[in-house]
Amino acid sequence: MFCASDDPAGARLRKNSCNRVATRLRSNSRIRATRPHPRFVYQILPHFRFLDSDFSSVSCSEIPMEMAPSVPHTRAAAALRMKQIALDNQDRTIRHLRAKLATERRGLAATKKELEETQVALEASHKVIAGLTEIGLSMSKKIEKMKVKKQQVRSNHVECHQKFQALIHEAEDSMQAQHLIIEALVDEKDSLLQTIHDLQEANNAPAPFDGDWEEEPEEEDIEDIPLGEGEIDDE
């Protein structure tokens, strides 16, 4: 199984044979069919370089000669295959990036559309807020005007009430004065009648006013209006 010879020519032959076997393994049809990922190419295939030293102990008779084509042709094919794999991986990466870019563009377009809709809704909200603010300001002004008007009405009401109370007191005073005048006139009439009666008795003459004199009915006393009545509630 192992060659114990230390001949330099044999060593070169073994090395060339091992290189050809490794190159053949790199260009295996299964690797071409699967088109490995770059990580596979750079992580798995480089191990074949380190495995080349393992074939240094393999006997030359164990390696079939039909598997060992010319070294330059095999290396060129392997390099070409590696470049093809790299190009395929680059194409795949470019397609993936293009698809990702298209997806991001679609997402960006959707986001832009949502942003425009949000902007429109925000502008509408600002308009509504501005309208409500104007309504609130106008209502505040109206409320202030109503408060001022209510205060004026209340002050006018108090003033009118005071004037009305003064008129009532004045009327009461006038009525009391008239009542006193009436009482004085009634007393004066009684005294005049008594004087006439005394004169008639002194002269033994018939009373000139018998049957003709009718006492005027006394005027009915006007009821005093209590001071507490007639007040108007301020509220």
Condensed summary:
The chain has 235 residues and is mainly alpha-helical. It has helices spanning 8-26, 29-34, 38-43, 46-51, 71-203.
What this model shows, in words?
The protein has helices spanning 8-26, 29-34, 38-43, 46-51, 71-203. It is an all-alpha fold. Helix 1 runs parallel beside helix 5. Mean pLDDT is 73; it is low at 1-5, 29-69 and 225-235. The longest helix is centred in the middle third of the chain and has 133 residues, at 71-203. The chain is built from 5 helices and no strands. The chain has a domain at 8-112.
Helices and strands in order, then pairings?
Layout: H1 8-26, H2 29-34, H3 38-43, H4 46-51, H5 71-203
Helix pairs in contact: 1-5
Q: Please tell me the overall pLDDT.
A: 73
N-end to C-end Cα span? 126 Å
| Biggest sheet overview | none
Strand-pairing-aware structural class: mainly alpha
Percentage of residues assigned to helices:
over 70%
Radius of gyration: 68 Å
Please provide the count of β strands.
0
Strand percentage lies at under 5%
